[in-house]
From TrEMBL, chains A, B:
Keywords: Kinase, Transferase. Signal peptide: none annotated. This is Putative NBD/HSP70 family sugar kinase. It comes from Nocardioides thalensis. One of its GO terms (molecular function) is kinase activity.
Amino acid sequence: MTTRQRGAGTNQEGVRRHNLGTLLRHVHRTGEISRAELTSLMGLNRSTIAGLVGELAELGLTEHADPATGSAGAGRRTAGRPSAGVRVVDAGPYVVAVDLGVDRAVVARVGLGGRIAERAEAAINEDTEAWQVGAAVAALVRHVVSWAPEHAPLLGIGISVPGLVRRTDGLVRQAPNLGWRDVSFGSIVLAALDLDVPVRLGNDADLGALAEHHRGAGVGIDDLIYISGNVGVGAGVITGGVRLQGAGGYAGEVGHMNFDPRGPLCHCGSRGCWETAVGAHAIAAAVKSPADQVVRLGEVLDEITAPPRELRPIAASIGRGLADVVNSYNPSLVILGGYFQPLFRLMRSEVTAGLAERTMAPALESVRLAVPGLGADSVLLGAAEIALEPVFADPVASLATAITDARSRLAG
Amino acid sequence: MTTRQRGAGTNQEGVRRHNLGTLLRHVHRTGEISRAELTSLMGLNRSTIAGLVGELAELGLTEHADPATGSAGAGRRTAGRPSAGVRVVDAGPYVVAVDLGVDRAVVARVGLGGRIAERAEAAINEDTEAWQVGAAVAALVRHVVSWAPEHAPLLGIGISVPGLVRRTDGLVRQAPNLGWRDVSFGSIVLAALDLDVPVRLGNDADLGALAEHHRGAGVGIDDLIYISGNVGVGAGVITGGVRLQGAGGYAGEVGHMNFDPRGPLCHCGSRGCWETAVGAHAIAAAVKSPADQVVRLGEVLDEITAPPRELRPIAASIGRGLADVVNSYNPSLVILGGYFQPLFRLMRSEVTAGLAERTMAPALESVRLAVPGLGADSVLLGAAEIALEPVFADPVASLATAITDARSRLAG
């Protein structure tokens, strides 16, 4: 009997932590939410919700919000009395998100609610070794953490990589445009920081899709693709509301689709991959931007008002490659990230015509192209999301592994 | 109180029917299973299992099996006393499965347990109208039903189509190689039969993947692709154990991937699709089989012992196209169906070399190519599976819509 009772107790504790995490996720997604809405969303009674809210506040994860007059409280409020709300703590726990590109790294301190509190970036030179990139990223991490509120807990680090990341342990198996094979980049960054905090890695396009699905252009859309159009090109796929990962975590490598068997060699070793026709280097050549200034390509494209003729075939090739993507996954939304975003703004009709040229009619009819709802920050915010996942699984356990003196330790 | 009691009663009835269906699904998957194994698999006690087994027997869906001496009963049998078993009824309820190809239709009567009791096939001439194809299929259905045990209930019809089938209602939106657009083929077949019985439609490759996952080469494998290599080429995708359908049900149209921008025109209207390089017409040309004899291509390939040189580039193109498929979905198993099956047997090294040439290393390392475990019947058995799905959802309701005098009615 003792065993059974203990079992039941442990199970109850598990259920309570699960409910705490779920409630916190709702607060995170909305930024602020009424208790009445939480009662309705979670199917728990008011006193249970009040208990969970109290515990999250004690843990320093959320705080009381005055009754909102807008949409908050619309759930089941008692007549005329708006329900009290819960919101994330601005000066509270945070994660560090890293968006590692081929040409630059962006690092941000991100709180619950997905707010970017601080950001820093640096150019990455070509042919830099992984440990040097790790050191550069660590310096950016120190910078953004130095501005964190004192004693605010660092919950974890999320890192986006332009390559194939093994789902089981986050090992970077291959990042063709960085020249990496089997790089344990998470461990490299932690070593450079001399810090032991949970670190998670993901593929850039996968994380872009995740963030856009949670709080960007893809909210409420179950079948969507996020395309990262940078030096390399990849797809993050949400299908039936779930991330498509594949057996090892490597699904969505559409940048290496066969595009032209007579095309140029790709960094991956194959010939004529799609990204050789539409990646940053091809775009830079078309706008006559110096090859060593690819990092400035976004600004160059943003300044263009009348697109040069040389960009047209690239826009058409983006569309024709997207046709393969749409034929393969049948999404209802394709979000064009990276350099594809300004290109789509400049040459929407060329991209759309290329797509229409090769997409099967039923799939074409039901798909929409869009720019990211999160601007250039989709991938960065996706990196924050994977760093927060353990927090929503179990806030108590996550706070136990958090680092409360990160600011002073990293300042050292 | 009356309302609440009725509600609870309805809910209990729903749970019971759900359990009935789940138990039936276990019997279907295994053919024969012990009560002890069912107790263990379903987490229900022995008397509940006994009650459900009794009800399924009364419904004529299963029957008692003598205690098996082999693997059956291994679950939780009492010492020395093998547990009594349950098996499907051979002369019991059945579905009709239709595998409609571009060049031929195969129709089978399939019982619970996935056993093909009777089959018939006919060639389909090119440029035949949908209603003529429907009439030909109906004739085959009459034939296989004429051999059914008298009064055995016809539960439903499942139809595989080489095209894009809308997931909501089974409308054939587009079947390029049949020249079909928006054809309600299920209704056409039912009208030709003058019968009203549940009918479900699916894409050929999707159904091949489903059947191979349930009882073929892909049992227990969560990330797999079935490639239908026929006149057209398509992929059925299982990812994370679930069918990848896409927003409308059109995912997996990999036959229309861009393969060679300077290649021949495809039936879909695009140029250089993968299926123009590797589909049945390209294979027939390579082995100098007359274009109007594509229906006999399987036999021709089966007779070849030393493959002619002309087949080599086709085998390499199969591999190179599969690379795009593997890069896109990252499966751990690719099952080569249709004409790809004999080609793979003849030229495994050429296919494998083409795959290796373009697949990203981490995805290549973890993928295996295989021939179907169900031979040429994967798609046909997948059509039976979708016809059986409503039976496993609710056996009682399904028997209520079944037709018990199908044999005499169709004989008329």
